[in-house]
Amino acid sequence: MTDLAARIQVLEDKDAIRELTAKYCYAVVRQDCEALLKMFTDDGEFLMAPQFEFRGREQLAALYRDKIEEVAPKPFIQNHVIDVDGDQATGNCAVEIRLCAVEIRLVDAGQAVTACGHYNDVYRRVAGEWKFARRDFELYHWVSLAEGWAG
Amino acid sequence: MTDLAARIQVLEDKDAIRELTAKYCYAVVRQDCEALLKMFTDDGEFLMAPQFEFRGREQLAALYRDKIEEVAPKPFIQNHVIDVDGDQATGNCAVEIRLCAVEIRLVDAGQAVTACGHYNDVYRRVAGEWKFARRDFELYHWVSLAEGWAG
Amino acid sequence: MTDLAARIQVLEDKDAIRELTAKYCYAVVRQDCEALLKMFTDDGEFLMAPQFEFRGREQLAALYRDKIEEVAPKPFIQNHVIDVDGDQATGNCAVEIRLCAVEIRLVDAGQAVTACGHYNDVYRRVAGEWKFARRDFELYHWVSLAEGWAG
Questions:
Q1: Among B45, B83, C4, C9, which lies 20 to 30 A Cα-Cα from A64?
Q2: Does A4 sit within 8 Å of B7, measured CB to CB?
Q3: What phi, psi does B65 have (nearest 5°)?
């Protein structure tokens, strides 16, 4: 592979990874559990310390099949930074999420909730396709819209 | 055209299309109807089922000349996915919009409104320049900031 | 440099500049003054007419060391447009910011504040690295979340 081809490859990889995170958002909005699971490697993880961790396809299915419907999240991705190293990559992307509160949260059920934070992502190329090997969500705040993020 | 050149071309096309949607936002903020019209093909369309459809330059002019000033929208684009096929392309981009309510809406006039959704876009290259052939807006919610998107 | 290499270079430059603005956001969230200062050229400027201007490393240090902690901003970048011209570039990127009010503002201290606007940026390549030569912030609104942006 020539130097030019290698440079194009990195640009294409970063583009594919950005689109992976975008497609993830649309699949979350559609509450499309099957599509979401296919975006993870077989050993894929979704973490949000210290609240929870979902490791592997079975636990991820529980997350996406059971939890999403309750809160109907609408995620929006920004501030994407990606480092590609062959078939591995790491990255950060910020996210703003509009969702609805459920009783499990401290705020009242049925309220509009606004959350934001960023993902510490690990991506891996599997059979030519970029997937999430890990999404580690670092929360800035998760609050009712009525109360806001101050204080 | 070599294979490398073709790959660069796709990356450049996607970059140009992303910038088209960004420039659209700035033109909306400036309420620059002329700039907005130039971003559409002659047969360009803006749809939001089932509420309205604007087809062709004359109807689009009515949209951008008469409606924008009332609501002063500030749109922000995210989650962009693009498929390029020669001089045609399709894509999705999510949008968050801050605007002001007018009386035509059910919420009180003069209120802060927050909307989000995504565009199902069709892009076409005309004389070397990417334009919108269709923007089909799929609304997630359009609500007063005071009330929020739950319920 | 071949034509292909020049085209790849522009794509890489735009990618690096987009990541610069993203990394800026993460450094703001971390309140990492040292990292922020390194992202500016020695004669770098941050302007927001008519409220304030910070020119050069010493004034920028005052901005990032003293002001950020008070308001704890969480910025999110969108709508990025970039024109590269050799080692110079200009661009626009929109930003939504979640922050907390301090007493200097007209709204009450400790309130959730939401701001948005866009940067008129000037970027410069210094020793192979893209930096901000100027960030000129054009504010759309800076309001308490409780009051919103209408009226």
A1: B83
A2: no
A3: -85, -35
